[in-house]
Amino acid sequence: MIMDKISSGEEIGGAGGAYSYNALKRLDQIWSSICEVQSDSKVPEVVTRVQGPLVDYDLGDGSEIFDVLVCGGTLGIFVATALSYKGLRVGIIERNIIKGREQEWNISRKELMELVEVGILSEEEIEQIISSDFNPSRCAFESKGEIWVENILNLGISPAKLVEIMKERFVSSGGAIFEGKSLSSISVHDDFAVLNLSDGGSLPCRLVIDAMGNFSPIVRQIRSGRKPDGVCLVVGTCARGFDRNTTSDIIFSSSSIRRAGNSGVQLFWEGFPAGSGPTDRTTYMFTYVDPHFGGPKLEELLETFWDLMPAYEDVVLENLDIMRVIFGIFPTYRNSPLPAAFDRVLQVGDASGIQSPVSFGGFGSLTRHLGRLSNGIYEAVSGDLLDALSLQLLNPYMPNLSASWLFQRAMSARPQIDVSPTFINELLFANFESMQKLGDSVLRPFLQDVIQFGPLVKTLGLVMITRPQILPSIFKQAGPGVILNWSGHFVMLGYYTFLSTFIDPVLRPWVESLPLRNKYQWKRYLEAWKYGAGLDYRQGE
Question: According to its UniProt record, what is one Pfam family this protein matches (predicted)?
Fold first, then answer.
């Protein structure tokens, strides 16, 4: 009833780009299909390898061969613009129109400055896209205490304005946009790839970038339709009528495990002032589930949201003017980032699984990796290093990302596990309290989805000393297999930290003297050590 009263507007690409009840039903069908999928189910083949060079291709109508074609424009526009600024001939294929959603993205200024460093946005334009700026932000777990931080996810930016600026910059730099075009298939030849479109057209290029997000058909083919290892379910609103609206919540839990639909879930909240008005506020409720056990439908989660949100925000639901209803599904895989599986095809953004498994939405992780990716892709295209093995170096193993898996598992309610319903909140508060005691150098990277070896060792050590009684429950909740697997990534995190800190400075002058292919490979190794150890995150920015 609430959603029927809201003008849903036009639907756009990207997570959170649709607000209607029909869109909610469609997403619930996708979620049901994820839970029901069998590992041996047939997956449509989008990419095929054709032996030999591309011959007899008709370039009629004055078309041309692109250096790079980006599939998916909402976040793909950032990579495309960065590459176009480097002098490559780039095109974007988008099934809808390239347009940012109405709902704000929340981000830190530090992450926005990555776009300035890459050179595709100016500091003046950053001020133009900021619609809200607030401090401080709270982390709290079931009345156990509150932790307040400054300048973390404290900006609300307008995706509509940001994407429009990127679109103008992309076109002015010589980029081509193909809107209203859907990808049908890709034929990869020895020298080029050909994108076949659903309207019968085709476009040739040297490299295809898959920026089609979590539900990319190419990713589905590569992963053989396998179930995700975890899913973050998100529902929420942007509403008017909040009198107390100057601070935000980064993560807040007001209760232990409870029922939503037929499933037990641990619910978390986020709340941010919105830029559309002084009493406007965005409220998210989210939970982590294992699709092998199933979970509540988004519609069931929304019903729970309507029941619980007034108490969380200390408001009366009937007094609020609901402007938008927000919902999303964010699947994640332990095998991430996703290595390139084909010559001339590379995943970026959410399609590559580069985002943290405990975050929802990959804009922050995209900004963090944009400089690394745009430089690496440019070198690969310029040097014609577009075989699958060379492209795999752009989405390398990152132990800090793999180590994050334990956190999602620990935050998920799991059926038939003999742990206290309050365990998740107790564990989270123990970790956050320890990080706060250890200082900003430990707490701030973690709150921005960056896992580093030193801070992780300090936090785990302090938790073990101060809360040894929760260790048995951790083993029950996560399981010995996950703990063992995580231990390997933990060791590799320390190893990558050592390599990046001590070996990188010694090797870098030698790397610059190598032949083209070897130089490209070793530069990617050095980047993998740095980013895989979280050492790209610089304190004090």
Answer: Lycopene_cycl
